[in-house]
Specification:
Layout (H helix, E strand, L loop, with lengths): L8 H8 L6 H21 L3 H17 L6 H8 L2 H9 L25 E2 L9 E9 L9 E5 L20 E5 L5 E6 L5 E2 L5 H9 L4 E2 L2 E7 L6 E7 L18 E2 L2 E3 L19 E5 L2 E3 L5
Parallel strand pairs: 1-5, 2-12, 2-13, 9-10
Antiparallel strand pairs: 2-5, 3-4, 3-8, 6-7, 8-9, 11-12
Amino acid sequence: MKNVSMDTITQAFLDYCGEETDPRTLFLLTKMVEHAHAFAKETQLTHEEWMRGLKFLFDAGQISDNERNEFVLLSDVTGMSSLVDMIGSQHDGTSSSVLGPFHSVGAPELPVGGDLKQDNEGATVVVEGVVRGVDGALVEGAKIELWQTAENGLYYSQDAKQEDFNLCCSMVTGTDGRYAVTTVKPAPYKVPDDGPVGELFRATGRTPWRPSHLHFIVQADGYRSLVTEVFANGDPYLDRDAVFGVREDLIMDYVRHDDLDALPDGLAIEQNATIPWYKVDFDFVLAPENS
């Protein structure tokens, strides 16, 4: 097209796409470019503003590596990750939430009731519940992955003093659908703010803090995979999570106990539990695979 104008450039781009373009890809590209071009025209975007945006993306690429992905963080803090999660959670099961950048594949498997606390500092916390379907049926053989920060607010991949896979595990439910693990309370923490995303926080007066939470992935044959987080009731950042991950059904309560006789049966930590200890009861509800 020789005479491209503000009115024709969007269609010009679309006309350049070949007939062999995958229909879904073409649909997504069409909507993305239509919205992007409309944004530029509506805001009368200046060349300097656009170049600043491109530099922001360049800087995000420069700071990213195998341990840190600034683009994932950008998706999180702009609400896009949570919006995609919510679009995919329009069912009767437990809500999904953001995966985050610190999930590590290959965490060691613990038996139900296993001890994840080990020698980590902090009060003993027992987290247990069941996995069931939306019909109430208990799910045997569900694989659960759990990972969290230590008491200092750092994941093991951020902290050279922690061993690999510290406070990370996988677990498989038995016939009763139950999972149980002993651990410590995770701490609130700041998302990385020493890069481009930090500039965005400071430019908009936002907090980079996240409320304390446990990460979970729950998978079982015949059910949709669930990627989610469970948050502590009463956390000071619960209503201003930097990545918009909190959902009403993902809030847990730490219930204090001062009696070791009240510990659930079958815990590997029974002999080393401290007082006070805390109990969390949280069940996961999985939606059918094709829902």
